[in-house]
């Protein structure tokens, strides 16, 4: 258990870990190349390590240089049938993208599983469109839950209109479409992160984008490439909120991904009165990268609409913390997807923030939060969810007394150095305590 003590400031400069979503996708596309994809600043989290382990089990060559923080992945002899079950552990991205990759490799058989948390998460949303392409997938609850068995086949393309906005499902279909017969088109109900499309274009693979439609075409080979993965905006979000709600803060988050499909949190916080600037913008691997400078801000409540949710789905737990420190009412709707993440994040954040004295009402698809509330010290549960643990650590920075977080080790899923960075930025607010 870790104890977070209040602080009045978050000052300095920080680099956050490499973007987790981009790291996953770089590894999967590298597995489809002969020459390989080489990236620096690959995410150090356990989720991306699960992706690399699964791809290695399928015959990929993975070279990691931890001193230089680089990863090179390629499959010079093509992908092979794994000798054992592929374990995605806690990573939904790993599992769903594996299903797309495996489905289109003729005659290859594999079983994909995960930990107890991942076995509860919905897989039917990716299985159904893949089966419509001709994939052979079976498992628990008629393919709704892991473990799932896949027998690869030659797939057909086609048009797939998604019922739920999901970048993971979109990417799984596009991966399958690269080896299918005929063009494969995905139509989204609303925009989601477009890292896969950007990466394919950067590597020279034809992609047609038309509003909410994206189309890929069969390709016999994918060229290799190299680039630096920008910092993860979802990791930066915790520091953006922390600097905004602490009284004397000025923080610069360097070389972070500012892809517009990821920065919905900034748009919402701008409405709430965030004092910030985007500086030194450049491109890396086709992705927009910049320094995000944030200062202490006087926030006010706002309404987050369902249309906005896909661009800040991972940042909603820490936005709920920001809302407790904003004047007036903040209402977040259309976020039912949070109930099927690593935990039920709607419930987890409501329970934790109520325990600290927040005025928060849990709804079916979000929260209604009344601020500005002085949070109390107390105990918070991580629910085994990395984003809940980090969001509650940010809440602890503005509480009136210490906040102890149970099972904080789960932050290693995406951000192993989170508490080290917290110590460096605040100097004195963190200590380990016995449970």
UniProtKB/TrEMBL annotation:
Residue positions binding phosphoenolpyruvate: 20, 92, 121, 168, 345, 387
Q: List the subcellular locations.
A: Cytoplasm
UniProt: 3-phosphoshikimate binding residues: 20-21, 25, 166, 168, 314, 341
Query: Where would I find the Enolpyruvate transferase domain in this sequence?
Result: 5-422
Active-site residues, record numbering mapped to chain: 314 (proton acceptor)
Quote the Pfam families the UniProt record gives.
EPSP_synthase
Q: Which CDD domains match?
A: EPSP_synthase
Summary of subunit composition and partner proteins? Monomer.
Q: What does this protein do?
A: Catalyzes the transfer of the enolpyruvyl moiety of phosphoenolpyruvate (PEP) to the 5-hydroxyl of shikimate-3-phosphate (S3P) to produce enolpyruvyl shikimate-3-phosphate and inorganic phosphate.
Family, according to the entry, reads as follows:
Belongs to the EPSP synthase family.
PANTHER family to which the protein is assigned, alphabetical? AROM/DEHYDROQUINATE SYNTHASE, PENTAFUNCTIONAL AROM POLYPEPTIDE
Identification of the protein by name: 3-phosphoshikimate 1-carboxyvinyltransferase
What is the gene called? Answer: aroA
């Amino acid at each position: 258990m870790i104890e977070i003590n209040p602080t009045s400031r978050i000052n300095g400069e920080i680099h956050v870990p490499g973007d987790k979503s981009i790291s996953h996708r770089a590894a999967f596309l590298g597995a489809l190349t002969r020459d390989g994809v080489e990236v620096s600043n690959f995410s150090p989290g356990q989720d991306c390590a699960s992706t690399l382990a699964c791809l290695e089990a399928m015959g990929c060559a993975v070279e990691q240089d931890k001193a230089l923080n680089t990863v090179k992945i390629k499959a010079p002899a093509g992908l092979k049938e794994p000798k054992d079950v592929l374990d995605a552990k806690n990573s939904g991205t790993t599992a769903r993208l594996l299903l797309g990759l495996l489905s289109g490799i003729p005659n290859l058989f594999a079983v994909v599983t995960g930990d107890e948390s991942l076995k509860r998460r919905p897989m039917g949303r990716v299985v159904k469109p893949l089966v419509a392409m001709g994939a052979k997938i079976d498992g628990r609850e008629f393919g709704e839950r892991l473990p799932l068995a896949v027998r690869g086949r030659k797939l057909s393309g086609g048009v797939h209109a998604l019922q739920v906005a999901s970048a993971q499902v979109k990417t799984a279909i596009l991966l399958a479409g690269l080896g299918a017969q005929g063009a494969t088109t995905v139509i989204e109900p609303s925009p989601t992160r477009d890292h896969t499309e950007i990466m394919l274009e950067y590597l020279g693979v034809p992609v047609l984008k038309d509003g909410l439609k994206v189309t890929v075409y069969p390709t016999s080979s994918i060229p290799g490439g190299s680039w630096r993965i920008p910092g993860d905006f979802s990791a930066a979000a915790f520091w953006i909120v922390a600097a905004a709600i602490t009284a004397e803060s000025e923080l610069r988050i360097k070389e972070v991904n500012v892809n517009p499909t990821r920065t919905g949190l900034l748009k919402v916080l701008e409405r709430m009165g965030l004092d910030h600037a985007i500086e030194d913008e450049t491109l890396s691997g086709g992705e927009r990268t910049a320094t995000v400078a944030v200062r202490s801000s006087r926030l006010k409540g706002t309404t987050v609409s369902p249309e906005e949710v896909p661009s800040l789905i991972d940042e909603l737990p820490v936005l709920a913390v920001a809302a407790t420190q904003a004047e007036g009412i903040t209402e977040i709707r259309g976020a039912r997807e949070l109930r099927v993440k690593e935990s039920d994040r709607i419930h987890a954040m409501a329970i934790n923030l109520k325990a600290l004295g927040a005025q928060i009402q849990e709804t079916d698809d979000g929260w209604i939060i009344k601020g500005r509330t002085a949070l109390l010290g107390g105990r918070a549960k991580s629910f085994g969810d990395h984003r809940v643990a980090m969001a509650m650590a940010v809440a602890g920075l503005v509480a009136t007394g210490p906040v102890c977080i149970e099972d904080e080790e789960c932050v290693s899923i995406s951000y192993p150095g989170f508490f080290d960075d917290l110590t460096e930025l605040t100097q004195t607010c963190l200590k380990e305590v016995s449970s």
